[in-house]
Amino acid sequence: MTPHHRRTLHCALIGAVAVTSLGVTAGPASAKSSLSFTAGPRSVGLGGLVRAAAKASDDNATFNKVCVQQRWSANAWHNVACSKPARHAGGAVNATLRVKQRGHLQLRAALFEGRSAQDQHPRTRSTSRPITVTVH
Question: pLDDT tens-digit profile of 58-116?
């Protein structure tokens, strides 16, 4: 084997090791998170009470909070109640709503993450499936 071939093989081997090590360390980091949500009853009379509970956890390095959100029909989602923001957490929140109109009320939980406990514009990390309550 000539010195030129040996040098080419050596460079190829170093390149392969470098690419492999970069692939291992540059992979996406994933934080573990969970979000659970319950609400009920699924049918209630006008003026009745609906209870909702949300619990979330997240091990990322941001400030997280969990909120119960509501909307009527296809309108925008609005926060009803939220936990306090906490680092490496998510929290738990309970909400009791007295329904004041007939129709279909949708409820869900949302996990938000912010840069600080005072962040006014946290981003949505995850949401639960909506639960529909029929108000008659």
Answer: 888 789 999 999 999 889 999 999 999 988 788 999 999 999 999 999 999 999 999 99
Amino acid at 100: K
d(CA 105, CA 44): 10
Contact between residue 55 and residue 92 where contact means Cβ atoms under 8 Å apart: yes
User: Alpha carbon of 1 to those of 10, 81, 135: distances in Å?
Assistant: 12, 73, 84
Mean pLDDT of 6-34: 51
Query: Residue 99: phi, psi to the nearest 5?
Result: -80, 135
Burial of 16 (0-12, 13-18, 19+ CB in 10 A): exposed
Q: What is the pTM of this model?
A: 0.75
Residues 6+ apart with CB under 8 A from 19: none
**Beta strand 63-72 pairing with 86-87:** antiparallel
